[in-house]
């Protein structure tokens, strides 16, 4: 395939219908980390707002995953590094024709404010749960299959019997150190996703291949396909090219089959 035009900066995505499924492929470990954190944070927020004890159980399990991930990787440092990189690249856009200078200035100001807030945040992200015996006991027991049963953790069983408002308040207290990080992740990924120009392309016999212009720092590939086509993409990407192979999931009892028909889809390659 030929090289392609990335379109104007912040071209944004075309309006997608509710029946469209979007799949993303990160091209760097930092982007992979941010996408994982984004997914976990969205799950936590949804579950914590639902009032049932089962929902709050799920919210707490997700929070355990968030802090486990944050304990293995310095999320705040990686996030600040990405914001600094975006600011530097946005600054270079100022000299290019066709760029909305006012919008670009506002964007960079917002990025710098967010960077400053991350720099000013004092203490580790796990400061609220570090040394908390209740949280630690839950994290230790849930590492075992079925380890959060009432006979294993009677205090947890008691907590789940408390009013929903009290449970939600504790969950949000434990999440509070992550508030700025969560906002920064949302902003960074929003800019990243909007930095590509969506194009309508076709995977012939369920297969598409594209070269990547190495003059750009690519971060993310997005593939949007109509749900009624009853297929999903597997994206394989390197530094110079990527491929998209569409598969038919069938009835989920047998191995997915490679699609042998043309599949129209929307492709967005994001670089900022």
Automatic annotation (TrEMBL):
Keywords: Cell cycle, Cell division, Cytoplasm, Septation. Cell division factor that enhances FtsZ-ring assembly. Directly interacts with FtsZ and promotes bundling of FtsZ protofilaments, with a reduction in FtsZ GTPase activity. It is found in: Cytoplasm. Interacts with FtsZ. The keyword Nucleotidyltransferase does not apply. InterPro entries: ZapD, ZapD_C, ZapD_sf. GO terms for biological process: division septum assembly; FtsZ-dependent cytokinesis. The keyword Cytoplasm applies. One of its GO terms (cellular component) is cell division site. It comes from the Bacteria. Belongs to the ZapD family. This is Cell division protein ZapD. Its main location: cytoplasm.
